[in-house]
Amino acid sequence: MKYEVTILGCGSATPTLRHGPTSQFLEHNSHYFLIDCGEGAQLQLRRYKVRFLRINHIFISHNHGDHCLGLPGLISTLHLLGRSKPLAVYCQVGLKEAVEFQLKTSHSRL
Hints:
Elements: E1 3-9, E2 23-28, E3 31-35, H1 41-47, E4 57-59, H2 65-68, H3 71-80, E5 88-90, H4 95-105
Parallel strand pairs: 3-4, 4-5
Antiparallel strand pairs: 1-2, 2-3
Helix pairs in contact: 3-4
């Protein structure tokens, strides 16, 4: 049974050269989860050679920017990569509408 957590960002409410906002990548028995998606999460995913298209579930713990502002950009990137399978995003009330607005205005979709 494989269980591996990669810390993509912690210890910073804003991106710095040494720390990124909160985000963790979890692999459990060939299932891939992203927990929080702060700014810079995509760069960290690339740094750790995580294939974006493998992520099927994203959990946003709460709506503070350091936990969710990377989400619209990640979804837009998944669109550009041609993702066609469903992506489950679990979040608090209000975030869905904010992300949908950002995707609509940038002509992105998933």
